[in-house]
Specification:
alpha/beta; Metallo-beta-lactamase, Chain A; six-stranded mixed beta sheet; 8 helices; 14 strands; globular
């Protein structure tokens, strides 16, 4: 039976207005703490699923290769993923699979780790599960998506030396564990569903990044299609309600597991 663990990969600060999308500042300013630049602190709450001999990590965090400009903008913490995995008793070579919810820098940055003047795949033995449409847009972004992806910096080494499995739609990658394509946040966004006899979980990625985003109408300005994000949320909630499941939040600084029964939606 699969077991789930929260893996803290650090934090960073992101523009509050962009995170709240079309919701006016006047509505959320007293509910969400921001700094002097109206940036909101975002945790990097990754998911580790252990099932038999499989150790499946979902997303990789920021990594340790941000440039000076990115560090000034996002004020990231140290890359905490290796230490957090070690606390759970796992090393980089123990990870058998990595599921990428999408390929934005705060999720894909940790695919590669810098060691002085050398770069290497962080998880050299892992198979990477990525939606085909997400890989395509990351490799050849259009005008709308050009600023969202850094293929040469973050993904080129994976392409040349990694084990990539491009998937399409809803795919079971292991008994009890499925990747579900939903789009919305990016063209090829996917969420992860864990269905075991004792509990039902959905790790929604940036479709529902924080507790504030559990409202159906609140979507990020980073979403390429608000309508698809809205549809994805409805689908996620329907699945959770059917199994009295638990939503896992990837960026919230206070909450990780949110029972569907606790949400008024």
């Amino acid at each position: 039976m699969s077991k789930v663990f929260k893996v803290h990969a650090g934090n960073y600060w992101s523009d509050g207005g962009a995170l709240m999308g079309v919701l006016p500042y006047a509505i959320w300013k007293d509910k969400i703490k921001t700094d002097e630049r109206r940036r909101q602190k975002m945790d990097l709450n990754l998911l580790l699923i252990v099932s038999g001999q499989r150790r499946i990590l979902v997303d990789t965090g920021l990594g340790n290769r941000l440039d000076h400009k990115q560090r000034e903008i996002y004020q990231p913490s140290e890359f905490a993923l290796p230490a957090s995995l070690a606390e759970l008793g796992f090393a980089d070579r123990d990870i058998t699979d990595v599921i990428m919810t999408h390929l934005h820098f705060d999720h894909a940055g940790g695919i590669v780790t810098g060691f002085g003047n050398q770069d290497a795949l962080t998880f050299p033995k892992a198979k990477y599960w990525i939606q085909k449409d997400e890989w395509k847009i990351a490799k050849n972004p259009d005008g709308l998506n050009k600023a969202a992806y850094q293929f040469e910096h973050q993904l080129e080494l994976l392409e040349s030396h990694g084990n990539i499995e491009l998937i399409d739609g809803e795919v079971e990658i292991h008994p009890e564990i499925s990747c579900v394509k939903c789009g919305g946040h990016t063209v090829g966004s996917q969420y992860v569903q864990i269905d075991n006899p004792n509990a039902f979980y959905i790790y929604a990625g940036d479709i529902i990044a924080t507790k504030f985003h559990t409202s159906l109408a609140i979507t990020s300005a980073y979403d390429v299609c608000r309508q698809d994000t809205f549809k994805a949320k409805k689908e996620i909630y329907e699945r959770l309600k059917a199994r009295n499941g638990i939503l896992l939040l990837d960026h919230d600084t206070r909450e990780w597991e949110v029972p569907i029964s606790s949400l008024r939606i």
